[in-house]
Amino acid sequence: MIEPHGGRLVNRVASGEKAAALEAEARELPVSQLNPFEVSDLEMLASGAFSPLEGFMGHEDYARVISDKRLANGLPWTLPVTLAVNEETAQALKKTPRAALADSNGARLAVLEIRDVFPYDREAESLAVFLTANDDHPGARYVASRGNWLVGGPVEVFRRPNAEEFSKYRLDPADTRRIFAERGWNTVVGFQTRNPVHRAHEYIQKSALEIVDGLLLHPIGGETKSDDISLEVRLRCYEALLENYFPQDRVLLALNPASMRYAGPREAIFHALIRKNFGCTHFIVGRDHAGVGHYYGPYDAQKIFSEFGAGELGIAPLFFEHAFYCRECAGMASQKTCGHGKQSRVMLSGTQVRAVLREGGQLPMEFTRPEVGAVLHQAFGQQQIGQGA
Ligand SMILES: [Zn+2]
Questions:
Q1: How far apart are CA 300 and CA 78, in angstroms?
Q2: pLDDT at 211 over 60
Q3: Burial state string for 274-284 with b = 16 or more CB within 10 A and e = fewer than 16
Q4: Do 158 and 57 meet the contact criterion of CB atoms below 8 Å apart?
Q5: How far is the CA of 333 from the centre of ligand 1 (A)?
Q6: How far is the CA of 366 from the centre of ligand 1 (A)?
Q7: Which helix (H) or strand (E) holds 102?
Protein backbone atom coordinates (compact mmCIF):
# COMPACT_ATOMS: atom_id res chain seq x y z
CA MET A 1 0.00 0.00 0.00
CA ILE A 2 1.25 3.47 -0.91
CA GLU A 3 2.52 5.56 2.02
CA PRO A 4 0.50 8.62 3.07
CA HIS A 5 2.12 12.01 2.37
CA GLY A 6 4.84 12.50 4.99
CA GLY A 7 4.85 8.77 5.83
CA ARG A 8 2.11 8.55 8.46
CA LEU A 9 -1.68 8.73 8.23
CA VAL A 10 -2.80 11.46 10.63
CA ASN A 11 -5.85 10.83 12.80
CA ARG A 12 -7.24 13.78 14.74
CA VAL A 13 -10.58 12.22 15.65
CA ALA A 14 -11.08 11.59 19.35
CA SER A 15 -13.45 8.87 20.48
CA GLY A 16 -14.89 7.46 23.72
CA GLU A 17 -13.78 9.08 26.97
CA LYS A 18 -11.31 11.34 25.22
CA ALA A 19 -14.08 12.77 23.03
CA ALA A 20 -16.33 13.28 26.05
CA ALA A 21 -13.53 15.11 27.89
CA LEU A 22 -12.85 17.37 24.90
CA GLU A 23 -16.54 18.10 24.49
CA ALA A 24 -16.78 19.11 28.16
CA GLU A 25 -13.66 21.27 27.82
CA ALA A 26 -15.01 22.92 24.65
CA ARG A 27 -18.08 24.14 26.55
CA GLU A 28 -15.82 26.31 28.73
CA LEU A 29 -13.46 27.60 26.00
CA PRO A 30 -13.73 30.73 23.85
CA VAL A 31 -15.39 29.77 20.56
CA SER A 32 -14.22 30.45 17.02
CA GLN A 33 -16.98 29.91 14.50
CA LEU A 34 -16.03 28.27 11.19
CA ASN A 35 -17.68 28.88 7.84
CA PRO A 36 -18.70 25.79 5.78
CA PHE A 37 -15.44 25.98 3.81
CA GLU A 38 -13.38 25.83 7.03
CA VAL A 39 -15.59 23.04 8.39
CA SER A 40 -14.75 20.93 5.34
CA ASP A 41 -11.04 21.64 5.94
CA LEU A 42 -11.52 20.55 9.56
CA GLU A 43 -13.07 17.33 8.31
CA MET A 44 -10.10 16.72 5.98
CA LEU A 45 -7.63 17.42 8.81
CA ALA A 46 -9.47 15.11 11.22
CA SER A 47 -9.55 12.10 8.89
CA GLY A 48 -5.93 12.37 7.75
CA ALA A 49 -6.91 13.35 4.20
CA PHE A 50 -4.56 16.33 4.67
CA SER A 51 -1.70 14.23 6.16
CA PRO A 52 0.85 15.29 7.32
CA LEU A 53 -1.10 18.36 8.51
CA GLU A 54 -2.49 18.01 12.02
CA GLY A 55 -4.25 21.35 12.11
CA PHE A 56 -4.59 24.79 10.57
CA MET A 57 -1.30 26.19 9.31
CA GLY A 58 0.94 28.37 11.41
CA HIS A 59 2.99 31.19 9.90
CA GLU A 60 6.05 29.13 8.86
CA ASP A 61 4.09 26.56 6.88
CA TYR A 62 1.76 29.21 5.48
CA ALA A 63 4.55 31.47 4.22
CA ARG A 64 6.53 28.64 2.60
CA VAL A 65 3.43 27.19 0.91
CA ILE A 66 2.71 30.60 -0.62
CA SER A 67 6.29 31.24 -1.77
CA ASP A 68 7.65 27.72 -2.52
CA LYS A 69 4.69 25.33 -2.77
CA ARG A 70 6.18 23.45 0.18
CA LEU A 71 5.63 23.05 3.92
CA ALA A 72 8.29 24.44 6.28
CA ASN A 73 9.87 20.96 6.41
CA GLY A 74 10.27 20.93 2.61
CA LEU A 75 7.47 18.49 1.75
CA PRO A 76 5.50 19.51 -1.35
CA TRP A 77 2.22 21.23 -0.44
CA THR A 78 0.61 23.79 -2.70
CA LEU A 79 -2.43 25.33 -1.00
CA PRO A 80 -2.91 27.07 2.35
CA VAL A 81 -5.16 25.33 4.88
CA THR A 82 -6.03 28.14 7.22
CA LEU A 83 -8.43 29.43 9.82
CA ALA A 84 -9.14 33.13 9.38
CA VAL A 85 -10.53 35.45 12.05
CA ASN A 86 -11.09 39.17 12.41
CA GLU A 87 -8.80 41.43 14.43
CA GLU A 88 -11.00 41.38 17.55
CA THR A 89 -11.14 37.57 17.68
CA ALA A 90 -7.41 37.39 16.95
CA GLN A 91 -6.60 39.56 19.96
CA ALA A 92 -8.89 37.44 22.16
CA LEU A 93 -7.35 34.18 20.92
CA LYS A 94 -3.82 35.44 21.57
CA LYS A 95 -4.67 35.30 25.29
CA THR A 96 -5.86 31.70 25.41
CA PRO A 97 -3.94 28.46 24.76
CA ARG A 98 -7.00 26.59 23.49
CA ALA A 99 -10.26 27.42 21.72
CA ALA A 100 -13.39 25.55 20.69
CA LEU A 101 -14.21 25.35 16.98
CA ALA A 102 -17.89 25.49 16.10
CA ASP A 103 -19.84 25.21 12.85
CA SER A 104 -22.00 28.04 11.51
CA ASN A 105 -24.93 26.86 13.67
CA GLY A 106 -22.77 27.17 16.78
CA ALA A 107 -22.40 23.42 17.35
CA ARG A 108 -18.96 22.75 18.85
CA LEU A 109 -16.94 20.21 16.88
CA ALA A 110 -13.31 20.40 17.94
CA VAL A 111 -10.67 21.89 20.18
CA LEU A 112 -7.84 23.94 18.65
CA GLU A 113 -4.47 24.18 20.40
CA ILE A 114 -3.39 27.72 19.53
CA ARG A 115 0.25 27.89 18.47
CA ASP A 116 0.26 30.91 16.22
CA VAL A 117 -1.89 34.01 15.64
CA PHE A 118 -0.63 36.20 12.79
CA PRO A 119 -1.77 38.82 10.30
CA TYR A 120 -1.50 38.03 6.58
CA ASP A 121 -1.89 39.70 3.21
CA ARG A 122 -5.03 38.38 1.51
CA GLU A 123 -4.29 39.97 -1.84
CA ALA A 124 -0.75 38.54 -1.91
CA GLU A 125 -2.18 35.11 -1.11
CA SER A 126 -4.66 35.30 -3.98
CA LEU A 127 -2.02 36.51 -6.43
CA ALA A 128 0.26 33.60 -5.49
CA VAL A 129 -2.43 30.91 -5.32
CA PHE A 130 -4.93 31.95 -8.00
CA LEU A 131 -2.64 34.23 -10.05
CA THR A 132 -5.29 36.91 -9.64
CA ALA A 133 -6.98 38.92 -6.90
CA ASN A 134 -9.89 39.66 -9.23
CA ASP A 135 -13.33 39.49 -7.64
CA ASP A 136 -14.60 37.42 -10.60
CA HIS A 137 -12.47 34.51 -9.41
CA PRO A 138 -14.48 32.50 -6.82
CA GLY A 139 -11.35 31.58 -4.83
CA ALA A 140 -10.01 35.15 -4.71
CA ARG A 141 -13.47 36.44 -3.82
CA TYR A 142 -13.60 33.99 -0.90
CA VAL A 143 -10.14 34.94 0.37
CA ALA A 144 -11.01 38.65 0.20
CA SER A 145 -14.13 37.97 2.28
CA ARG A 146 -12.19 36.38 5.14
CA GLY A 147 -10.78 37.93 8.32
CA ASN A 148 -7.27 39.38 8.04
CA TRP A 149 -5.66 37.26 10.78
CA LEU A 150 -4.87 33.54 10.77
CA VAL A 151 -4.87 31.15 13.71
CA GLY A 152 -2.70 28.06 13.50
CA GLY A 153 -2.39 24.91 15.55
CA PRO A 154 -3.37 21.24 15.79
CA VAL A 155 -7.03 20.26 16.09
CA GLU A 156 -8.78 17.44 17.89
CA VAL A 157 -12.26 16.69 16.62
CA PHE A 158 -14.81 15.18 18.98
CA ARG A 159 -17.88 15.49 16.72
CA ARG A 160 -17.55 14.70 13.01
CA PRO A 161 -19.06 17.43 10.83
CA ASN A 162 -21.65 16.43 8.19
CA ALA A 163 -21.57 12.83 9.41
CA GLU A 164 -25.24 12.17 8.63
CA GLU A 165 -25.40 13.47 5.08
CA PHE A 166 -24.68 10.86 2.37
CA SER A 167 -23.09 8.75 5.11
CA LYS A 168 -22.76 5.72 2.82
CA TYR A 169 -20.20 7.62 0.75
CA ARG A 170 -18.27 9.18 3.64
CA LEU A 171 -15.16 7.04 3.64
CA ASP A 172 -12.03 8.21 5.45
CA PRO A 173 -8.54 7.49 4.07
CA ALA A 174 -8.27 4.59 6.53
CA ASP A 175 -11.53 3.16 5.10
CA THR A 176 -10.59 3.45 1.42
CA ARG A 177 -7.15 1.96 2.17
CA ARG A 178 -8.80 -0.99 3.92
CA ILE A 179 -11.25 -1.52 1.03
CA PHE A 180 -8.45 -1.35 -1.58
CA ALA A 181 -6.52 -3.99 0.39
CA GLU A 182 -9.60 -6.22 0.77
CA ARG A 183 -10.20 -6.05 -2.97
CA GLY A 184 -6.56 -6.80 -3.70
CA TRP A 185 -6.01 -3.55 -5.59
CA ASN A 186 -2.28 -2.75 -5.71
CA THR A 187 -2.71 0.19 -8.06
CA VAL A 188 -5.63 2.60 -7.86
CA VAL A 189 -6.37 5.68 -9.94
CA GLY A 190 -8.22 8.61 -8.39
CA PHE A 191 -10.65 10.75 -10.36
CA GLN A 192 -11.57 14.19 -9.07
CA THR A 193 -14.83 15.74 -10.20
CA ARG A 194 -17.31 18.40 -9.24
CA ASN A 195 -19.59 17.83 -12.24
CA PRO A 196 -21.88 15.08 -13.56
CA VAL A 197 -19.97 12.43 -15.47
CA HIS A 198 -20.50 12.45 -19.20
CA ARG A 199 -19.11 9.92 -21.66
CA ALA A 200 -15.90 11.89 -22.12
CA HIS A 201 -15.10 11.42 -18.41
CA GLU A 202 -16.14 7.78 -18.53
CA TYR A 203 -13.76 7.23 -21.43
CA ILE A 204 -10.84 8.81 -19.53
CA GLN A 205 -11.64 6.80 -16.38
CA LYS A 206 -11.79 3.58 -18.37
CA SER A 207 -8.60 4.38 -20.29
CA ALA A 208 -6.83 4.78 -16.94
CA LEU A 209 -8.51 1.69 -15.51
CA GLU A 210 -6.99 -0.40 -18.33
CA ILE A 211 -3.57 -0.01 -16.67
CA VAL A 212 -4.45 -0.12 -12.95
CA ASP A 213 -6.44 -2.42 -10.65
CA GLY A 214 -9.15 -0.06 -9.45
CA LEU A 215 -10.79 3.36 -9.82
CA LEU A 216 -11.67 5.69 -6.94
CA LEU A 217 -14.41 7.97 -8.24
CA HIS A 218 -14.00 10.78 -5.76
CA PRO A 219 -16.33 13.74 -6.25
CA ILE A 220 -16.00 16.94 -4.23
CA GLY A 221 -18.38 16.85 -1.27
CA GLY A 222 -17.51 20.23 0.25
CA GLU A 223 -18.25 23.73 -0.94
CA THR A 224 -18.33 24.47 -4.68
CA LYS A 225 -19.36 27.62 -6.47
CA SER A 226 -23.09 28.23 -6.29
CA ASP A 227 -23.66 27.49 -9.98
CA ASP A 228 -22.13 23.99 -9.83
CA ILE A 229 -24.66 21.14 -9.78
CA SER A 230 -25.86 19.95 -6.36
CA LEU A 231 -24.10 17.04 -4.69
CA GLU A 232 -27.28 14.97 -4.48
CA VAL A 233 -27.90 15.18 -8.23
CA ARG A 234 -24.25 14.47 -8.99
CA LEU A 235 -24.27 11.38 -6.76
CA ARG A 236 -27.36 10.05 -8.55
CA CYS A 237 -25.59 10.58 -11.90
CA TYR A 238 -22.51 8.65 -10.68
CA GLU A 239 -24.70 5.84 -9.33
CA ALA A 240 -26.53 5.56 -12.66
CA LEU A 241 -23.24 5.42 -14.56
CA LEU A 242 -21.49 2.92 -12.29
CA GLU A 243 -24.51 0.63 -12.07
CA ASN A 244 -24.89 0.38 -15.82
CA TYR A 245 -21.43 0.78 -17.34
CA PHE A 246 -18.71 -0.35 -14.92
CA PRO A 247 -17.73 -3.69 -13.39
CA GLN A 248 -18.81 -3.30 -9.76
CA ASP A 249 -15.64 -4.84 -8.35
CA ARG A 250 -13.30 -2.35 -10.05
CA VAL A 251 -14.78 0.95 -8.86
CA LEU A 252 -15.30 2.64 -5.50
CA LEU A 253 -17.46 5.77 -5.22
CA ALA A 254 -16.71 7.95 -2.18
CA LEU A 255 -16.91 11.62 -1.27
CA ASN A 256 -13.91 13.86 -1.01
CA PRO A 257 -15.15 16.28 1.69
CA ALA A 258 -12.80 19.04 0.51
CA SER A 259 -14.06 22.37 -0.77
CA MET A 260 -13.11 23.61 -4.23
CA ARG A 261 -10.51 26.38 -4.40
CA TYR A 262 -10.43 26.79 -8.22
CA ALA A 263 -6.66 27.23 -7.97
CA GLY A 264 -5.93 25.31 -11.21
CA PRO A 265 -2.33 24.03 -11.24
CA ARG A 266 -1.70 24.38 -7.50
CA GLU A 267 -4.97 22.58 -6.82
CA ALA A 268 -4.04 19.74 -9.19
CA ILE A 269 -1.03 18.93 -6.97
CA PHE A 270 -3.18 19.38 -3.86
CA HIS A 271 -5.81 16.99 -5.27
CA ALA A 272 -3.14 14.42 -6.12
CA LEU A 273 -1.61 14.53 -2.60
CA ILE A 274 -5.06 14.12 -1.04
CA ARG A 275 -5.74 11.04 -3.23
CA LYS A 276 -2.37 9.62 -2.21
CA ASN A 277 -3.57 9.84 1.41
CA PHE A 278 -6.72 7.97 0.40
CA GLY A 279 -4.44 5.21 -0.98
CA CYS A 280 -4.36 6.03 -4.72
CA THR A 281 -1.17 5.35 -6.67
CA HIS A 282 -2.27 7.28 -9.77
CA PHE A 283 -4.27 10.45 -10.33
CA ILE A 284 -6.04 11.71 -13.46
CA VAL A 285 -5.24 15.28 -14.47
CA GLY A 286 -7.26 16.56 -17.39
CA ARG A 287 -6.98 19.80 -19.29
CA ASP A 288 -7.66 22.88 -17.15
CA HIS A 289 -7.95 20.79 -13.98
CA ALA A 290 -9.63 22.78 -11.16
CA GLY A 291 -9.70 25.80 -13.42
CA VAL A 292 -12.28 28.52 -13.73
CA GLY A 293 -12.71 31.24 -16.35
CA HIS A 294 -9.46 31.90 -18.24
CA TYR A 295 -7.06 32.35 -15.33
CA TYR A 296 -4.86 29.35 -16.21
CA GLY A 297 -3.51 27.92 -19.45
CA PRO A 298 -5.13 24.64 -20.58
CA TYR A 299 -2.02 22.57 -19.73
CA ASP A 300 -0.73 24.47 -16.67
CA ALA A 301 -2.26 21.93 -14.26
CA GLN A 302 -0.27 19.18 -16.01
CA LYS A 303 2.98 21.14 -16.40
CA ILE A 304 3.21 21.97 -12.69
CA PHE A 305 3.97 18.30 -11.90
CA SER A 306 7.40 18.72 -13.51
CA GLU A 307 8.31 21.26 -10.79
CA PHE A 308 8.57 18.34 -8.33
CA GLY A 309 10.81 15.30 -8.33
CA ALA A 310 8.88 12.09 -9.08
CA GLY A 311 9.66 10.61 -5.66
CA GLU A 312 8.64 13.80 -3.88
CA LEU A 313 4.96 13.58 -4.73
CA GLY A 314 4.79 9.80 -4.46
CA ILE A 315 1.72 9.56 -6.71
CA ALA A 316 1.84 9.27 -10.50
CA PRO A 317 -0.20 11.78 -12.49
CA LEU A 318 -1.93 10.53 -15.65
CA PHE A 319 -2.44 13.36 -18.13
CA PHE A 320 -5.44 13.36 -20.44
CA GLU A 321 -6.82 15.44 -23.29
CA HIS A 322 -10.49 16.34 -23.66
CA ALA A 323 -12.35 13.35 -25.09
CA PHE A 324 -15.32 13.19 -27.46
CA TYR A 325 -17.36 10.79 -29.56
CA CYS A 326 -16.16 10.71 -33.18
CA ARG A 327 -18.71 9.59 -35.78
CA GLU A 328 -15.96 8.53 -38.22
CA CYS A 329 -14.11 6.48 -35.58
CA ALA A 330 -17.53 5.29 -34.31
CA GLY A 331 -16.23 5.56 -30.77
CA MET A 332 -14.77 7.74 -28.05
CA ALA A 333 -11.44 9.38 -28.84
CA SER A 334 -9.32 12.46 -28.22
CA GLN A 335 -7.16 14.61 -30.47
CA LYS A 336 -4.31 12.24 -29.59
CA THR A 337 -6.13 9.25 -31.08
CA CYS A 338 -8.44 10.66 -33.77
CA GLY A 339 -7.40 12.55 -36.87
CA HIS A 340 -10.87 13.43 -38.09
CA GLY A 341 -12.18 16.97 -38.20
CA LYS A 342 -14.32 18.87 -35.74
CA GLN A 343 -17.46 18.21 -37.82
CA SER A 344 -17.21 14.50 -36.89
CA ARG A 345 -17.02 15.14 -33.16
CA VAL A 346 -19.97 15.24 -30.77
CA MET A 347 -19.00 17.83 -28.16
CA LEU A 348 -21.37 20.03 -26.14
CA SER A 349 -20.41 22.97 -23.98
CA GLY A 350 -21.88 23.37 -20.51
CA THR A 351 -24.09 26.14 -21.89
CA GLN A 352 -25.39 23.84 -24.64
CA VAL A 353 -26.08 21.05 -22.14
CA ARG A 354 -28.11 23.41 -19.96
CA ALA A 355 -30.05 24.72 -22.97
CA VAL A 356 -31.02 21.18 -24.02
CA LEU A 357 -32.11 20.25 -20.50
CA ARG A 358 -34.01 23.49 -19.97
CA GLU A 359 -35.97 22.94 -23.16
CA GLY A 360 -36.85 19.42 -22.01
CA GLY A 361 -34.79 17.79 -24.78
CA GLN A 362 -32.63 14.67 -24.59
CA LEU A 363 -28.84 14.86 -24.54
CA PRO A 364 -27.32 12.87 -27.42
CA MET A 365 -26.40 9.27 -26.55
CA GLU A 366 -22.91 9.93 -27.88
CA PHE A 367 -22.46 12.63 -25.24
CA THR A 368 -24.28 11.37 -22.13
CA ARG A 369 -25.40 7.88 -21.16
CA PRO A 370 -29.23 7.87 -21.23
CA GLU A 371 -29.42 6.76 -17.58
CA VAL A 372 -27.33 9.80 -16.55
CA GLY A 373 -29.32 12.04 -18.90
CA ALA A 374 -32.54 10.88 -17.22
CA VAL A 375 -31.24 11.96 -13.78
CA LEU A 376 -30.24 15.39 -15.11
CA HIS A 377 -33.49 15.73 -17.02
CA GLN A 378 -35.54 15.02 -13.92
CA ALA A 379 -33.41 17.33 -11.76
CA PHE A 380 -33.73 20.20 -14.23
CA GLY A 381 -37.48 19.56 -14.36
CA GLN A 382 -37.64 19.98 -10.60
CA GLN A 383 -35.44 23.08 -10.86
CA GLN A 384 -33.29 21.72 -8.09
CA ILE A 385 -30.10 22.61 -9.79
CA GLY A 386 -28.54 25.74 -11.01
CA GLN A 387 -26.11 26.10 -13.82
CA GLY A 388 -23.00 24.19 -14.75
CA ALA A 389 -22.82 20.74 -16.31
ZN1 LIG B 1 -12.19 10.09 -35.44
A1: 14
A2: yes
A3: bbbbbbbbbbb
A4: no
A5: 7
A6: 13
A7: strand 98-102
